[in-house]
Amino acid sequence: MRHLDEPYLTMLRVALYRPKAKEAELLQPLSVEILRSRPNDHRTRTGANSFWVLRVLEMYLQARGIS
User: Fold this and answer.
1) How many CA within 13 A on the CB side of residue 36?
2) Residue 67 pLDDT
3) Cα–Cα distance between 46 and 14 in angstroms, integer?
4) φ/ψ of residue 15, rounded to 5
5) Closest CA to 53 of 45, 29, 19
6) Cα torsion for 41, 47, 51, 52, to the nearest 10°?
7) pTM of the full structure
8) Is 49 helix (H, G, I), strand (E, B) or coil?
9) Rounded to an integer, what distance in angstroms lies between the CA atom of residue 5 and that of residue 64?
């Protein structure tokens, strides 16, 4: 996913700010805030949206019961 709009932005915020995600301390809060403030400005080396990549990682961790 390259460009994020609603409802995906809300879905990402909910996932990345849930208590278990914060408690796990896998992501640096400042980095998440930077991505959240400008969700379509940051890309991975392959051109994917960095904020979306974080959401996919969070989904993977939730599915595996990793917190």
Assistant:
1) 16
2) 63
3) 25
4) -65, -45
5) 45
6) 140
7) 0.72
8) strand
9) 27
* Helix (H), strand (E), coil (C) string for 9-31: HHHHHHHHCCHHHHHHCCCCHHH
Average predicted confidence (pLDDT) for the chain: 84
Token pair listed for 33: 């805030």
Q: How confident is the chain (67 residues) per 10-residue block, as mean pLDDT?
A: 84 80 76 88 93 86 79
Q: How far apart are CA 25 and CA 41, in angstroms?
A: 24
Query: Is residue 52 within 8 Å of 5, Cβ to Cβ?
Result: no
Angle at 53 between CA 2 and CA 21, to 5 degrees: 140
What's the DSSP call for residue 43? B
The amino acid at 52: W
